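[SOLVED] Need 3D model of a two-part complex

Original post:
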Amino acid sequence: MKSALILGFVLLVGLWYLSFSATRLDRLHHRVETSWANLDVLLQKRAAIALEIAHSDLADPASSLLLTGAAYQARDADVEHRSVAESGLSGALSLILSDGLAHASDSEKALLQELSALTAKIGVAIAIHTDAVSSTQMVRKKLVVKTFRLAGTAPLPVTYEFESDVL
Amino acid sequence: MLTKKLTIGIVCPYGWDTPGGVQNHVRDLAEFLIAAGHTVSVLAPAIDESQLPDYVVSAGKPISIPYNGAVARVLFGPIAYARVRQWIGSAEFDLLHLHEPAIPSISLLACWAAEGPMVGTFHAAAKRQKVIFAIGPILEPAIEKLSARIAVSEAARLTLTDHLETDAVVVPNGIYAKRYSAGIFQQKWAGNTIGFIGRFEEPRKGLQVLVDALPIVARFAPDVKVFVAGPGDPREFEKHIDPQLRHRFEFLGKISEQEKADFMSSVSLYVAPNTGGESFGIILAEALAGGACVVASNIPAFDSLLGSGEFGALFESENSTDLAKVIIDLLRDQNRRKQLSIAGKAHAQIFDWDVVAQQIFSIYEMAMVGANGVSLSSDGRAWSRFLSRDEEKK
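Solution:
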């Protein structure tokens, strides 16, 4: 009788722990998705601004060509090539920014300001996203998660190798 | 700028009526957000509930426990948990901002009880402790519910990555830089003077290091004077000072914010000889904003705040000979002093609330992406009901 009680109790605690772990994991997956969505929006915005800069007087024809190419690549890249394409865009932008500031007009200065505000946000968004990804990966490595397949069919999130100092 | 008006809940883990860095930060942040048109409610433990500003909700009387080498006034337990849940349910918060969610207080309880966009700010910097192996697994599931983490300094961020293996974005503590740069020069504090502000009785504030350095300084600068401001009993402390040098120390007691600004603008040197336990060093940011030439010990928080010596002079922590040397060099070199104070004043603008609140707010925006306000957590529903059943009976 007594041992049956204990067994029942242990079973209950075990079940509670399973449900707890499953909720935890679900929340983490959700965080990975939302933080990625957030980052994606910011990166798209950056590509749009890059195109605007490319079409402004800030860029000479050669760098305009370079920037337009990089911006389109960053927009079209699929998930695997995204980080390479974004780094390429960062590089092209920093080339322009390093010598294009002197003769900027007022509207172009506003554009550059918008870009630098966006860059700061992207930095934060990257930090939040990589953090979500790494904690999800850590929880999914746990034995209890693996044995009971608590992750279901959700794909294992992959770390995106962003350069930490975008621009 | 801050366009959409939000309802923000802020949780302060320490007793509201005891002075402290976290409490000041929460108060300033709340007031800044309210001034920007947001609706803010702060949940904090409080001893005297009648003295609270109207945006603060009391969570009950704090309990004093020894924590991290000091006495912390925190609050936890089933009744506090029920209060936290009630507070979360009482308003439709768009976002919760939890301060110090890794210490056993109501921030952790709120983190446990709520679901939705949450931002956590970590203030403390501490060396790695063994105990974390025991409490880590308990904290981890709660801490990872935070949508975004903020650390107030590089030191606090390292503590976080060390202890809980999670990263954070560094956003410094805020100051009202304009108040300090408006400080008026006071002749009574000018000359070959050294300023110190803080609870000088606490050994970690390091006033003793300055006292030990003074005999050497006095030999080279015979008219040097030290002004010590801050709460405490000077008579007890004066016993540790060489009788011949006692008249060089003047204790001002606790000074007002306005006096503090004047003080920073008037003294030749502001010395912060703290020996550790400091995570950010808000007083240094205030001194820089007030245009003081700062000398500080080279503990990590100060080193990074002063840009490794770019915005103020550093000396080897707890080494009074080195401190004396730095002080003498600076007292003799007016140009260098001026140079440091100008560089420091310009640098201090990045700690202004206008800048800092903007950074915090953009993190709020990111935390809220795709979420629909804060609600009570659904996990362990039976458990929560068990803990808060008294509340429901009423």
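Edit: Chain B touches chain A through 23 residues (CB under 8 Å).
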